[in-house]
TrEMBL record:
<dbReference type="InterPro" id="IPR007861">
    <property type="entry name" value="DNA_mismatch_repair_MutS_clamp"/>
</dbReference>
<protein>
    <recommendedName>
        <fullName>DNA mismatch repair protein MutS</fullName>
    </recommendedName>
</protein>
<dbReference type="InterPro" id="IPR005748">
    <property type="entry name" value="DNA_mismatch_repair_MutS"/>
</dbReference>
<dbReference type="InterPro" id="IPR045076">
    <property type="entry name" value="MutS"/>
</dbReference>
<dbReference type="Pfam" id="PF01624">
    <property type="entry name" value="MutS_I"/>
</dbReference>
<dbReference type="Pfam" id="PF05188">
    <property type="entry name" value="MutS_II"/>
</dbReference>
<keyword id="KW-0547">Nucleotide-binding</keyword>
<dbReference type="InterPro" id="IPR007695">
    <property type="entry name" value="DNA_mismatch_repair_MutS-lik_N"/>
</dbReference>
<dbReference type="InterPro" id="IPR016151">
    <property type="entry name" value="DNA_mismatch_repair_MutS_N"/>
</dbReference>
<dbReference type="InterPro" id="IPR027417">
    <property type="entry name" value="P-loop_NTPase"/>
</dbReference>
<dbReference type="Pfam" id="PF05190">
    <property type="entry name" value="MutS_IV"/>
</dbReference>
<dbReference type="InterPro" id="IPR000432">
    <property type="entry name" value="DNA_mismatch_repair_MutS_C"/>
</dbReference>
<dbReference type="InterPro" id="IPR036678">
    <property type="entry name" value="MutS_con_dom_sf"/>
</dbReference>
<dbReference type="InterPro" id="IPR007860">
    <property type="entry name" value="DNA_mmatch_repair_MutS_con_dom"/>
</dbReference>
<keyword id="KW-0238">DNA-binding</keyword>
<dbReference type="InterPro" id="IPR017261">
    <property type="entry name" value="DNA_mismatch_repair_MutS/MSH"/>
</dbReference>
<dbReference type="Pfam" id="PF05192">
    <property type="entry name" value="MutS_III"/>
</dbReference>
Length: 878
């Protein structure tokens, strides 16, 4: 069957993007056909129609409006699709010049993938959107990542086993790997919800990658950026190759690559990040995470910097001290801090505006964002006196100054509130361009221009009844009554006025001037827009020449925002400055869990019970607290809060404690809670053992280890033996500072055998058979777990609780006497008896209760009620 020229064009373009949906531009719509249409209609919940036939069958078709395309793109990307955007490269009028049946030239201008988004509507303003690449060259590995919406570009060497931990830290939207590694890495990558993209091995060629990098940054060698190994160069080159493919040659404005090293940040594995809920709650989403509670930033850039710092705490003492000094300064200068935060609230997202402009996806509002952001930077610089600020903010001051020329240029050229898109026009200020002003005048004041011309014609001819009129056939024309025809057709007027038409009562003329004016009026709107487009391109190029300065200012504003936000957090939540040094100290006084404390304040208003923790150890020795106590008493909260306090301190923040002295930690491990992993065929206990094995195999003497209920997923003696051996290994081999919570009270004996182990317990009080949780941690060991009492609080039926007490008493008695075997206990306690457990007989009601039940208060007068009260009181005495 014959294929129409348009459909032939579609199929040819689609063949190059088989794994993506093709958004095929048709006037004001992006249309999709065949399988793309079926998939998109279902994903977007839009109508599926048909257009024409192919091989005898109807062609499925659906479409979305161009003006609303961003919302549909976001939905498709979130559902795992990639989208190839195909635009019209010429107008239909230009196509017709080649022939009446010529098809408009079209081409794919961009491949939209999760890691290559730049539009404001498609991104979370307060989070990075990373595109990463993992490369292997012989026995070396590297990970490179870029956020094209901000220009950030990083690379780091790493071992193969560290890939999962780094992916958990960065949370990229998309990971590029060699096609040869795609199957091997799929499980690891998809565990984190990351889109996996395979590229040809040639994209990871280190020699070709080095050339791509040098060409991008216009340098002869990469030495000025750092000493990169071949794997790092390959990873960075693969990122560039993918950007060239997806952006169709329009590379974003990337900053020079920054090399990171594992030794500069605290190593936190994926399980620990998940357990501590650093940036995402276990339930999914940001709400309930540590980040959601501590984020008081007021700019998008500051929020992204906070997440980076929280995800990558520093191990560099000098860096941490500068950060803490800056927070202390902002904390001590409350009035100045409030003024700074008020000004920062007016700062737009400079990084993303600059990135959109570099990719030619920006608009007038992005130029205005740069103008407004830099203007606020200048105001903030004036408020910061260099000798009075800490070292960290001195660099910020330097980044905020020197932008007056660009600000003035954009201030002069742009109106105060420009539209989002260039095609909307009207964003260039009056007086900037004479041709633009004239075009706008003609467009907006055409009637006035014609009236003025008419007055001139009346004056020149002396005919007061002369009019300039317009219709769709003649356009603009001059009309006079037929009585003036002879005068108009005679010299000298006939030399100016050209006869066009004679009617019964009127004669119509035109002039060269009127014809030219007509053309100018009719074309004024289009001409004005073309002039504005040209001026926009000039302004865009001018801004991009200052890209490095704008990026520095954006970084300075983010640093200032984060400093002020952490100080605001410290003030409002009563946090204190930690003491950070290179010792093995870990002494927390009055520590609190910020997320739990925040939840209590919002719900019940109850205060959080603060607790101390001291894991300080001499060099080469361990210090471990063995924590016992009942469930629900707060053991897990205590474990987590100390890990969080250490992490906050090493990101450069004040901490939720009365005081904290922390010797730098190199690694943070937390194994608190577990669930099964059915996709990998792992039981809850298997997951627990895998995570524990990772800790014991990696933790060094600078690590902080948090372990909760090791061995609980198996038989009692198996679990006890595993927990026992794990604690000994931590003490003797890893020599880490650690908190080890357990219900195996037998382990408390280790405190007398291992010099680095101390017992601690969460205190409770028992009252009339019920347990009251005090949430206080003190030295010593718990004598029991109060499991039955907790079960009662949970609402188990009274008969079950009563039976459990009987069984527990029998088991404890057998263990004390040492003579009862398990079989004897089972024989004595018919645990599997088919007889239902007898229910306790209801208590007989008292005489007083009977008299009370007979009273009907609504039927009593006040006097009768008082008499009844005296009578009941007398009955109670008897």
């Amino acid at each position: 069957m014959t294929v129409t020229p348009m459909m032939a064009q579609y199929l040819e373009l689609k063949a190059d993007y088989a794994d993506a949906l093709l958004f095929y531009r048709m006037g004001d719509f992006y249309e999709m056909f065949f399988e793309d249409a079926v998939a998109a209609a279902e994903a977007l919940d839009i109508a599926l129609t048909k257009r024409g036939k192919h091989d005898g069958a109807d062609i499925p078709m659906c479409g979305v409006p161009v003006h609303a395309a961003e919302g549909y793109l976001l939905t498709l990307i979130r559902k795992g699709f990639r989208v190839a955007v195909c635009e019209q490269m010429e107008s239909p009028a230009e196509a017709k010049k080649r022939g009446s049946k010529s098809v408009v030239n079209r081409d794919v201008v961009r491949l939209v993938t999760p890691g290559t988004l730049t539009e404001e509507a498609l991104l979370e303003a307060r989070r990075h959107n990373y595109l990463a690449a993992f490369a292997q060259v012989r026995d070396t590995y590297a990970l490179a990542w870029v956020d094209i919406s901000t220009g950030a570009f990083h690379v780091m060497p790493l071992t193969r086993v560290r890939l999962g931990a780094e992916l958990a830290r960065l949370a990229p939207s998309e990971l590029i790997v060699s096609e040869t590694q795609e199957a091997e890495l799929r499980d690891t990558v998809e565990e984190f919800g990351i889109a996996l993209t395979g590229l040809a091995r040639s994209a990871f060629d280190s020699t070709g990658s080095e050339k791509r990098l040098c060409d991008l940054f216009e340098v002869e060698t990469l030495d000025s950026f750092g000493a990169f190994d071949r794997a790092e160069i390959a990873a960075m080159g693969a990122v560039l190759q993918y950007l060239e493919i997806t952006q169709k040659g329009k590379l974003p404005l990337l900053r020079a690559p920054q090399r990171e090293a594992e030794t500069r940040t605290v190593q936190i594995d994926a399980a620990t990040r998940r357990n501590l809920e650093l940036t995402q709650a276990l339930s999914g989403g940001r709400a309930g995470s540590l980040l959601s509670v501590i984020d008081k930033t007021v700019t998008a850039g500051g929020a992204r910097l906070l997440e980076r710092r929280l995800s990558s705490p520093s191990r560099i003492l000098s860096v941490l001290r500068k950060r803490l000094d800056a927070v202390a300064w902002a904390n001590d200068n409350a009035a100045q801090r409030h003024k700074i935060r008020d000004q920062l609230r007016k700062v737009p997202d400079l990084d993303r505006a600059l990135s959109r402009l570099s990719l030619d996806r920006g608009g007038p509002r992005d130029l205005a964002a740069i103008r407004n952001g830099l203007a606020q930077a200048e105001l903030l610089r004036d408020d910061l006196s260099e000798p009075a600020v800490p070292d960290l903010l001195v660099n910020v001051i330097h980044a905020l100054r020197g932008h007056s020329e660009l600000i003035d240029h954009l201030e002069t050229a742009l109106i105060a509130e420009p539209p989002l898109l260039v095609r909307d026009g009207g964003f260039i200020a009056p007086g900037v361009d004479d041709d633009l002003d004239e075009a706008r005048k003609l467009r907006d004041e055409g009637r006035g221009v014609i009236a003025k011309m008419q007055a001139e014609f009346v004056s020149n001819t002396g005919i007061s009844s002369l009019k300039i009129k317009h219709n769709n056939v003649l356009g603009y024309f001059i009309e006079t009554p037929s009585t003036h025809a002879e005068k108009m057709l005679s010299a000298p007027l006939s030399e100016t006025f050209i006869h066009r038409q004679t009617t019964a009562n009127q004669v119509r003329f035109t002039t060269v001037e009127l014809s030219e004016m007509e053309t100018r009026i009719l074309n004024a709107g289009g001409r004005a827009l073309e002039i504005e487009k040209r001026l926009f391109e000039t302004l865009r190029n001018h801004a991009l020449k200052h890209a490095a300065d704008i990026a520095q200012a954006a970084g300075g504003l983010s640093e200032l925002d984060l400093t002020a936000a952490l100080a605001e957090l410290a003030t409002t939540e009563n946090w204190s400055a930690p003491k950070i040094d290179d010792s093995r100290a870990f002494a927390i006084e009055g520590g609190r869990h910020p997320v739990v404390e925040n939840a209590l304040q919002r719900s019940s208003g109850d205060p959080f019970i603060a607790n101390d923790c001291d894991l300080s150890a001499e060099a080469g020795a361990a210090n471990i607290w063995l924590l016992t106590g009942p469930n629900m008493a707060g053991k897990s909260t205590f474990l987590r809060q100390n890990a969080i306090i250490a992490l906050l301190a090493q990101m450069g923040s004040f901490v939720p404690a009365n005081s904290a002295h922390i010797g730098l930690i190199s690694q943070l491990f937390s194994r608190v809670g577990a669930s099964d992993d059915l996709a990998r065929g792992r039981s809850t206990f298997m997951v627990e053992m895998v995570e524990t094995a990772a800790i014991l195999n990696q933790a060094d003497d600078r690590a902080l280890v948090i372990l909760d209920e090791i061995g609980r997923g198996t038989a009692t003696y198996d679990g006890l033996s595993i927990a026992w051996a794990t604690l000994e290994h931590l003490h003797d081999v890893n020599r880490s500072r650690a908190l080890f919570a357990t219900h195996y009270h037998e382990m408390t004996a280790l405190a007398g055998k291992l010099p680095g182990v101390d017992n601690a317990t969460v205190t409770v009080k028992e009252w009339e058979g019920e347990v009251i949780f005090l949430h206080e941690v003190k030295r010593g060991a718990a004598d029991r777990s109060y499991g039955v009492q907790v079960a009662q609080l949970a609402g188990l039926p009274a008969a079950v609780i009563a039976r459990a007490r009987v069984v527990l008493e029998a088991l404890e008695k057998g263990e004390r006497e040492g003579g009862a075997t398990q079989k004897t206990l089972i024989d004595d306690l018919p645990l599997f008896s088919a007889r239902p457990t007898p229910q306790a007989a209801p208590a007989k009601s008292s005489l007083l209760e009977e008299r009370l039940s007979a009273i009907h208060p609504d039927e009593l007068t006040p006097k009768q009620a008082l008499e009844m009260l005296y009578a009941l009181k007398e009955a109670a005495k008897n």
